[in-house]
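Honest question from a wet-lab person: if I give you the sequences of every part of a complex, can you actually get the arrangement of the whole thing, not just the pieces? Trying it with mine:
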Amino acid sequence: MQTPRGGNTPLAIGLLVLAAVFAVAAIFYLSTRTSFLASSEARHYKHAVLALILCVLCLIGANFARRPQA
Amino acid sequence: MSAWLAGFIALLQGSTELFPVSSLGHAVVVPDLLRLDFRPTDESFVPFLVLLHLGTAAALLLLYREEWVRIAGGFVRASVRGRITDADERLALLIVAGTIPTGIVGFFLESPLKSLFANPRAAGAFLTVNAAILLGAEQLRRRDERRARVDIEAGEDREAVFRGVESLDVRSALLVGACQCLALLPGISRAGVTMAGGLVAGLRHQEAARFSFLLATPIILAAGVLEVPQLFHAGVPVGTYLGASVLAGAVAYLSARFLIRYFRVGRLDPFAAYCAALGITALVFAR
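Yes, you can. This is the full assembly:
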């Protein structure tokens, strides 16, 4: 589906949702002792950093998706 | 760890990190073959490895400092604008695309993979697999050269028909990045598989090496920076480790300069032969 400006709106929305998921994951790993997708029960700050980076990349991807490309 | 051993490991790490021969494979195999008294999987070794990686990353940043300034600027501009308008912005996007697969896979699987396979015989087997990957990539390249009818005997530049990094598409960059995931196995070289992936994607040898070094920088730097808190544990001989880090960085810098020059005309075959020889030696003699 194309917007009037030629961007890909569904992809942009999907990436925004993913960005929100990664933001929640970052907060979860920073604030909770967990072994979810990790080697041991602890606060996994590296997982939080990665989730934050993925969140930013998704936002950038969404910005690309909503604009028409040459 | 003695200063001599630290210096030796730094030399080993710095010289093998950027050559397509697997630094992690060497860190597992060589101490065992030389009967040295340390294991790269020990917790106490992590801070040392962190500093060696930071040294290598610093060498790569120094080597490509002007390019990295342009790439960083291009990344910010393209991210804000949501469009790619020049080569620097394109290269920045390709590096991001190529880094994502390893970042994700490495993050969740690095520890289990290391503990599963970080024994000398497994590393020897993977070094032999690395040799096969390098040889396979060169065989595919030779086929492409025949198809392109490159007449080397007539003095034609065999690399001229292939392309530079900036002309890669995002899918190819993702493919090269996916290849990089294999390097989580001790014995499979990050530089080797990314150069092999670059050759398969149609890059010139020198450009495949350049893309490999550019891709390696954020991964090595991130791996190092994320482990920095390990350095503040009690009992870490910071002076010795810092000296080793500088040594590893200096050797990595010289290695990168040599490789860039070598790949103007050179191929991956000699590195494949070396990996096969070391891998078979490890399979036969490792404890």
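Two things worth pointing out. The mean pLDDT of chain B is 88. Chain B has one domain: 3-285.
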